[in-house]
Amino acid sequence: MQVITTRCDCGAVFIEVGLSRPLADYQPRQCDCDFCTGRAIQYISDAKGFINITTSQPLVNLTQGSAQARFLQCANCQAVVAVSYQEQQSMLGAVNIMLFGERGLMKPAMVAAPKLLAPEEKLSRWRQLWMPLQLNIHTAAKS
Question: Does domain 2-136 have CATH number 2.170.150.70?
């Protein structure tokens, strides 16, 4: 398992991603919706990998399109760090690879058009492709 790490633009959110293959094997997905293109977001996921996100404050949760997925955004710098889907007790997600310096080692991004999929088709695709996502919020205790 290869582990890569980064932080959001302001450094408040730490992201750790475990990947089962070398980075050169991955081709990021570039969603063609206005939300993602306006923020220059590209995603990768690996069903055999993981995403761990650690932050000292709650992330902003944004929804778009069918409102099934949540885009996790730093409250300080507004960087979208990942997209997630909560299913019962587990969370799945894809990470915004544009925050990682290693992104140049991957294949060029392919354009994806999830808005063309029905809501159930999106869920099926996410269950197949996205990876377990763990969100750790460590707030300072108040005295």
Answer: yes
